[in-house]
Amino acid sequence: MMKQLVFVITLVAASGIFAFTINRIISYFHFTRPAFPVRDFGKRLWITFDIALGQTKIFRRPVIGLFHALVFWGFCVIAFGSVEMIIDGIFGTERFLKILGPVYDILSGSGDVFGLLVGVSILIFLSRRLFFHIKRFEGVEMKSVSHMDANIALSMILFLMISLNGMNTAYCAGLDLTGSPAIGVYPVSRLLTGVLSGLSASQINLVYEICWWSHILLIFIFANILPYSKHFHVFMSVPNVFLSRLDALGKLPNMDNITREVRMMLDPVNASVDPSAETPVERFGVKDVEDVSWKNYFDSLSCTECGRCTSVCPANMTGKLLSPRKIIMDVRARMKEKGPGMLKNGITFSDQKSLLRDYISEEELWACTTCNACAKECPININHPTLIVDMRRYLVMEEASAPGGIKGVFSNIENNGAPWQFSPEDRLLWTRDLEIRVG
Amino acid sequence: MELNKVEVPVMADMFAKGIHPEYLFWVGCAGAFDDQYQKVTRAFAKILTFLKVNYAVLGKEESCTGDPARRAGNEMLYQMQALQNIEIFKKYGIRKVITICPHCYNIFKNEYPDLGADFEVINYLQFIDQCILSGKLNLEPGVLTDVCITYHDPCYLGRANDIYIEPRSILKKITSNLVEMERNKSFAMCCGGGGAQMFKEAEKGDKEVYIERTEEALRTDAKVIATACPFCMTMITDGIKSKNRENDVRNFDIAELIVQSLNI
Fold it and tell me: What distance in Å separates residue A378's CA from the closest CA in chain B?
């Protein structure tokens, strides 16, 4: 009874803090702009199945991708065990999900095996970060706090897996003493019972309780650290894939407010009677974090800073400042900085800073070739180029700021309908003396 | 063997005669004005003539799609161009457009519909591949059959629109020695020319993007680097020159390779 009481109090406290954090993050979404309507649920379910559950994009790097996939699939299976622990904790039951019968054997068995696989994968990840020089973990945006964040989260997952397999091992060792049959299957932990040989039943039970409590408390702590860490990815990545932009990568979103203005210019008589023209004036493009779309912000919360985007960026690999990962990280950092002020003083709040220039320089923005290598590579469908172009839109349309060559392109297109200075009259010069060989 | 003059039909003339061509061949600005890429336009016009396709070009009525303006952030200018182009398409009742430039293809296919455009867009590689499949075009092993060719995927055909198969199946008809670069298909590296980069100086860095990509292409030991985009062509040709390899490695568009192979 005492154990249940302590558990429920811990659970309520953990959930309370978690709800507070999530509520705060959700309130930041009120400051973002619309992106696209979320429709086509069939297609969305398919890409969630394919890219999230199937991990197909992470497998673009097959070897290290496999270890991530093992961790992901492991989490999915082990989550059932965590739910069971919460039920057991509240109601004082023991292995409640045994009511699932043979399914329970599959769940517990695969959970036990995945405990080991995830643990090994995490050890590989940690050693890559600690002992190897992996280029994509470096970069200007990867400050020491980013590395610490990664190492803390990985260590916590490692301890989660140790406590999980420890718990199962103690359970199996306890059953060996009494000779009673196990509920569920524990292929890995069964092999480990030798570690506890020589311990009495009560000592084994103590080991079990320590592992049980460590595991569940680590889950509570982990869940509450995640929203402040890049590993918020654990919660946000699957929804982020579900909420992916479904358009072809080459498509930029249309600016409907511009369409109204242009139509009015081209055809003042008919366009001016359009009632939708009466919408309030808003900033063109993205200057600060309140101009980004909810999807840009969602992307930034889901990003785990793996750096696959930056590693394939042609600008970055040839030494330019641009790093697509940094752009996404900057959105999150800027919202974290400005969000509280906007919550207090409203969306017009200004701290004399902005995402553009204080975080992202013009030099970074103009280095993008819009090749979409970053977006193609992102395992969770983050879209960087649309945001980069949105920031260019602000620069060009609000500040008339662009590199000299680009300004030339604009005036050429305006004056003679081509990015170069050629007359439309010359558009057929290529047909001169064109001959074909026949016979 | 004799040479016949190719008359390129112009939409306004055809319309005046009461003829409604099935296809609009959208030449694009690079196709009309870029010295090197004009050869690609000429090659594709020859292919259209060879295939007896019922087409026309807009000629003086053609105007930039707005792609470089849009990707450089000038949405206003892009939409002005787009809405005016859409009006011209409507005037001639154009239903099918063939493009050679992937940037024109992408913007017509993915972005013009937001502004009310309603026509089918076909990239020239899809068109040619379709002609091969339907038996209209018979590309038999020709002069290039032993030439080692590598293909550089343009971002706006590949990643942007998932066109990877057609260029390769066409090239396999032309050569028996098609080799891939290390980074190919959806992994292909950009030439450095897209997103209006073509028209500006590169930002400070330690290397030019086109050099990095050209070096990768040269590592395949191919004698021909096949491209399918005007910007890629400028970049890769510059890259070959920078590496002093213009004597033994050439850059051709797939349309030019087809013309060479057909000997037309």
Answer: 12
Q: How do the residues of chain B divide into helix, strand and coil, expressed in percent and rounded to 5?
A: 45, 10, 40
In CATH terms, the fold of domain B138-262 is Rossmann fold (3.40.50)
* Nearest residue of chain A to residue B191 (CA atoms): A314
Q: Do the domains at B11-129 and B138-262 have one common CATH topology?
A: yes
Contact B192 A314 (CB under 8 A): yes
pLDDT in tens, A384-402: 999 999 999 999 999 999 9
**Could A247 and B64 be called an inter-chain contact, meaning their C-beta atoms sit closer than 8 Å?**
no
> How would you label B140-153 residue by residue, b for 16+ Cβ within 10 Å and e otherwise?
eeeebeebbbbbbb
Residues with Cβ within 8 Å of residue A121, at least 6 apart in sequence: A67, A68, A70, A71, A74
Distance CA B112, CA A429 (A): 27
- Based on its alpha-carbon atoms, the radius of gyration of chain A, rounded to whole angstroms, reads 28
Reply yes or no on whether the pLDDT at A273 is more than 60.
Answer: no
For A31-48, the pLDDT digits (tens) are 999 999 999 999 999 999
Q: How far is the C-alpha of B258 from the C-alpha of A287, rounded, in Å?
A: 48
Tell me the fold of B11-129: Rossmann fold (3.40.50)
Q: State the smallest CA–CA distance between residue A207 and chain B in angstroms.
A: 50
The tokens for B148 are: 């080692």
Write down the ipTM of this complex.
0.96
Report domain extents, chain A.
2-30+61-242, 283-422
So what's the pLDDT on residue A438? 87
Position A100 scores a pLDDT of 94
Q: How confident is the model at residue A270 (pLDDT cuts 50, 70, 90)?
A: confident
Residue A38 β-bridge partners = none
Per CATH, which fold does A283-422 belong to?
Answer: Fumarate Reductase Iron-sulfur Protein; Chain B, domain 2 (1.10.1060)
**Which tokens in the block code for residue B113?**
């519909």
DSSP H or E segment with residue B253: strand B250-253
Contact B64 A419 (CB under 8 A): yes
pLDDT tens-digit map of A328-348: 999 999 999 999 999 999 999
CB contact under 8 Å between A402 and B72, yes or no, is yes
What Cα–Cα distance (Å) separates residue B28 from each residue in A55, B24, B63, B105? 40, 12, 8, 10
pLDDT of residue A40: 96
Cβ distance of B161 and A420 shorter than 8 Å: no
pLDDT band at A281 (very low <50, low <70, confident <90, very high): low
Select the residue of A262, A322, A367 nearest B76 (Cβ to Cβ): A262
Mean pLDDT along residues A101-106 = 95
Where are chain B's structural domains? 11-129, 138-262
Chain B within 8 Å of A264 (Cβ-Cβ)?
A: no
Mean pLDDT of A418-426: 96
Q: Of the candidates B62, B77, B186, which has its C-beta nearest A427's C-beta?
A: B62
- A404 has a pLDDT exceeding 60: yes
CB contact under 8 A, B8 and A428: yes
CATH topology of domain A2-30+61-242: Fumarate Reductase Cytochrome B subunit (1.20.950)
Q: How much is the pLDDT for A276?
A: 55
| Chain A to chain B Cβ contacts (< 8 Å) | 246
Beta bridge partners of B121: B97
Identify which of B7, B43, B23, B22 has the alpha carbon closest to the alpha carbon of residue B228. B43
Q: How far is CA A345 from the centre of its chain?
A: 29
